[in-house]
Specification:
alpha/beta; 8-stranded mixed sheet
Amino acid sequence: MPKRISAAEAVPIRVVVVTMDSHLAGAMERAHAALRPELPSLDLVMHAADEWGNDPAMLQACRDDIARGDIVIAAMLFLDEHIRAVHDALLARRESCDAMLCCLSAGEIVRLTRLGRFSMTDAASGPIALLKRLRGSKSGGGSSGEGQMRMLRQLPRLLRFIPGTAQDVRAYFLALQYWLAGSEENLANLVRMMVERYAAGARQALAGSVRAAPPRPYPDTGLYHPRAAGRVVERVEALPARGASGTVGLLLMRSYVLAGNTAHYDGVIAALEARGLRVVPAFASGLDARPAIERYFWRDGAPAVDAVLSLTGFSLVGGPAYNDARAAETTLAALDVPYLAAHPVEFQTLEQWDASPCGLTPVEATMMVAIPELDGAICPMTFGGRSEAEGERRRTMAAHAERAAMLADRVSRLVALRRTARGERKLAIVLFNFPPNAGATGTAAYLSVFASLLNTLRALRDGGWRVEVPDTEEALRRRIIEGNASVFGTPANVAARVPADTLLRRERWIGEIERHWGPAPGRHQSDGGAVLVFGETFGNVFVGIQPAFGVEGDPMRLLFEHSFAPTHAFAAFYRYVRETFGADAVLHFGTHGALEFMPGKQVGLSGKCWPDRLIGDLPNFYLYASNNPSEGALAKRRAGAALISYLTPPVAHAGLYRGLLDLKASLDRWRALDPATAAGQVAALAGLVQAQAAAVDLAPAEPVWEPEERAAAIARIVEAVYELESTLIPHGLHVIGAPPDT
């Protein structure tokens, strides 16, 4: 028989929760269901800020609910656009609602907290001062997350018997515990505590109908697996033991695990295990992953994993608000395994991401790609997010099957590369040829390519690789540039022919390529019946020449015309490297090629983007000039490259040449003029200076300077010539493996 609802229980109460994203939505809905027998008239609504950008109606609904909320909870609001969207609404409701709890957010949000007699706007003295101790220090390399959690659990016990405002401060600390361990049970008890303590007016009678249990503790650091008993365990031995091809340490968000919102993680775990890898999915409290790494990714003083893959979307130490890259570097350097950072889409749906020419939103690109790069993370990839079902936004996470599979493929290849004996590894080295047909084969910015390549081949041989190394730089250059070139009438040695029927059979996206470049094999780098692959093989190392990208006169067309495609030759080259030669890794040699400029999203690429299609799952390393981080970022984000920086050559004064030298001589004569010099001679010299300056674009040729203009005009030219002469420019070329010239 259903329980009878008393008059007190029938009093409506609205609890409004506003937070950054909807990862707690499922747990909150289950908490609401658990509360209905106790609070049948409870209206519990949750609003996620990540939904506002694409739907103004959802923001307005949030503001309307705040204005009607009896108890308002705001958490994880630290992005400026989210704060500006609701700050005024929260402020307007602060004094008229029963209670307002604001936590784990930017200062202007947290200061809106009002719980009974406790207000965050009060002076930070007495019990309130304890709040400051939870902030921790952003300096130093130590982990403060575990210490903060210990303090958070201790403070409510210390405050329990202190009367007055201390009890409201205690409630604040308890609320933090409930939220940070955000299971459905803890979220339900958070609502119970807020109603029990702060329901006022007609709603005060509800306080007697609920009792909040203490926060249920969960491991600060633990392991998650969908097939583990209870899904959360604390010992590696309790994980399903499978996979003999290597071990991957996964870093997960504890809040998603406790909320039961883990389908996106489950998809990646399944994909990795399907490739024979053992997976150790670990989480830590807060946003400092070091405790999880130290506890689960080491064994007996040695690394226990072959790679670390972060699925958190945040930096290793610090999360979205700040980044301690130095601490992360120390941790990762000690571990000495590949570190990859993949991300779910948080501020848009998977469908919106898929349709976007940009890929990630600016906030996502900053938090999930740029900041983890400071730690040294590579291969930024989207692996999941929230989807839309029948036009209605879903709030639970899901894996993106194709992206999760590609992520698992790339991790698997990196692990295999690490575990393969050096003598068995195969490496493709890619040289560039831009502009084509201009004798530019084997050039790169500030790099002596063939001298550097020879040193690299020697180092590989000495390191245990099976490499055939020519005796001299010139011999190396001839084998690559000349070889059989005269037989084929080509600018470089032909390593292979890829017939048109092979292209039709093996090229998955042949239709897109033929739409732009005609039937296979096309006209670029082709003999009419086959695509020609330029390069030469040296044992287990193939040195190939990247084909021209087809629009040398308009290279930006590759980036801005999203329906464009690479040539038959360009696509065939990378397929040859991956499948025919069978490279275990590729090294792009110098700044820079065209792979990372191929059509597709800016960042957060999909399987429809050409850089992703071309490189596939092949581990990609890229020698890049240290003075060009902006274009290097494109290689990292669009081609999955791990950059290896090389020095630019020493600098020297540019000096002057040709017309500038003649101009300087005339300026010296001008400065040496005697005041008594005839007016005609002065005018003639001024005319000569103006003409010479005009020839080098330092002055207009007309109108001729008037006598009163000459001194000022010539002074400006003197300054410009001096600036040009004293400019520092690179002198010579850098050689990999050799000390710079002094």
